[in-house]
Amino acid sequence: MMWRPVQAGRTGKNMDSREDDDDLAAKVKPLRIGYSSWISKGYIVAALALVLLTLLSGVLTTDLSHSSGVPVVLKYVRAFKSEMLDLKSEVELKEPDSGSLQFSNPSNASKQAGCHKDSARLKVFMYDLPSEFHYGMISEFTPKKNQIWPQNVSDIPKYPGGLYQQHSPEYWLISDLVTSDMPDRSTPCTVFRVKRWQDAGVILIPFFASLSYNKYSRAPLLRGKKLDRNQELQLNLISFLSSQPAWRASEGSNHVVVIHHPNAMLHTREKFRSVMFVVADFGRYGAEVANMAKDVVAPYKHVIPNFDEDVDAALSFKSRTTLLFFQGAIARKEGGIIRQQLYELLGEEPNIIFSNGTTSNAGIRSATAGMRQSKFCLHLAGDTPSSNRLFDAVASHCVPLIISNEIELPFEDVLNYSEFSLFVNSSDALRKGFVTDLLSNVGEKEWTRMHDRLRQVERHFQYQLPAQIGDAVHMTWEAIARKVPALTLARNKQRRYARSQFISQKIAT
Ligand SMILES: *[C@@H]1O[C@H](CO)[C@@H](O)[C@H](O)[C@H]1NC(C)=O
Ligand SMILES: *[C@@H]1O[C@H](CO)[C@@H](O)[C@H](O)[C@H]1NC(C)=O
Ligand SMILES: *[C@@H]1O[C@H](CO)[C@@H](O)[C@H](O)[C@H]1NC(C)=O
Ligand SMILES: *[C@@H]1O[C@H](CO)[C@@H](O)[C@H](O)[C@H]1NC(C)=O
Ligand SMILES: *[C@@H]1O[C@H](CO)[C@@H](O)[C@H](O)[C@H]1NC(C)=O
């Protein structure tokens, strides 16, 4: 993490003493490499199996009911083919000027103003957890007695400012969902909140886990207390869920919870292992608790402002006089040894700025200026594989140079990061001259192509309220929706024998 959360009223000095907050808790170093690739292969096989199954079941049922089987089969095959083509055109985002992603079947209604149940891609049920689990953590939200949710769109309180923001996806997603059925909602939506869990595709657990970690886990324990408020909320959440029919029916496997801060729900996340997580990365998870097959990676909210004036790529190329920029803690404890080594290798190079940055406001100002003046911005693994820095680089239209072998990137199933970033293997990066040679050989034409692409994709990393089609809120919901069929498949498969067991038990008694 580059930017540490600041608490209101804390001074920069205190904040620095919090420098290691991400390291406080025990770390899980998973055996991830082999296992996770195995899992993702399994996922692909499962998805193919699902497609085949759908095809076959279509063929079988129509064969049974009608004699005119053949044309129907053709119809299925055609539909299947055109789906594959759609998928392909989604992945091949070749032309830099084509710009926006094509989302699967955006129905006509979703283009109309407002959010409609029938046009939404996914129906979501959300538990009515007391407000202390979500908006109640925000001091400007003043609910009336027994009030749980904001009443209307304008009633949504602002998320606490400053560096808390980087792990705020919980707030943007839940605010989008909670407003989806409000009468004053005038913008289109991907998800619609339904009142009955039986009608939902997924069930959302509305816990602001990252805010709870940031706000409550640092305060000294009150006298006589064994647990801090963050821990108490998590235990209360578990007991709440275990009494819910929706949870008991599925053991959580059709549930979603946003755990963006790497330390959020650190000690209870194991109990949620069947739930789909929305994470920043998998650095502090065992592969059996969180993985690419089940979970979704969401972007950090960038803290550096968008560089809206930066419209002319040729001008931008000329005015960016720094070749490579990095600002952040140079000595990191774990996984971050490479920072020190790279600093020794690159720190003295002309045109390269490698600065031992801080997270103060002055630090943000200097990072903003530095990223806007640089052609490439370094994203290095730190304590965890991901950080805010990548998304700050995108907002600054500074081409990311990603040196982080374990990183998982948001929406990489629909976005081709190679169009707007460079990746270097950590072991290559430590070869003398490798990085400087690579970067100085990127010509103006190639750089401006990546710059153009950055300007097109930056909206996919933009969290906002109201959300817009194609922004980070929408993209994350879409990513969740793409996981649902595979989860359903896994759940159905797991329960194949449940019924026969039930019957034979009845026989036995
Ligand atoms: C959607 O729009 C297309 C053309 O814009 C039209 O042909 C089609 O009938 C519309 N579908 C619905 C369900 O309104
Ligand atoms: C929205 O809700 C707030 C608080 O409940 C209320 O004061 C305000 O009048 C409402 N606004 C609209 C447009 O309904
Ligand atoms: C960076 O700053 C930290 C803390 O201010 C200091 O301990 C460390 O030596 C510095 N590293 C370099 C390479 O300047
Ligand atoms: C992704 O983009 C890179 C750079 O433009 C290109 O070489 C590569 O073929 C693209 N990958 C796919 C799957 O289109
Ligand atoms: C990175 O380099 C290491 C060591 O040379 C190698 O084992 C690994 O396969 C490389 N990874 C990629 C993605 O090229």
Automatic annotation (TrEMBL):
Using the UniProt annotation, give all residue ranges assigned to the region (Disordered). Answer: 1-21, 96-115
Q: Where is the composition biased (Polar residues)?
A: 99-111
What GO MF annotations does this protein's record show? glycosyltransferase activity
- Ranges of residues in domain Exostosin GT47: 120-435
Subcellular localization: Golgi apparatus membrane
Q: What is a single cellular component term in the Gene Ontology annotation?
A: Golgi membrane
Matching InterPro entries: Exostosin, Exostosin_GT47
Q: Which domain of life is it from?
A: Eukaryota
Q: Where are the transmembrane segments?
A: 42-60
Which UniProt key words apply to this protein? Answer: Golgi apparatus, Membrane, Signal-anchor, Transmembrane, Transmembrane helix
Topological relation to the membrane, as annotated: Single-pass type II membrane protein
To which protein family does this belong? Belongs to the glycosyltransferase 47 family.
Instruction: Write down what this protein is called.
Output: Exostosin GT47 domain-containing protein
- Species name for this entry? Physcomitrium patens (Spreading-leaved earth moss)
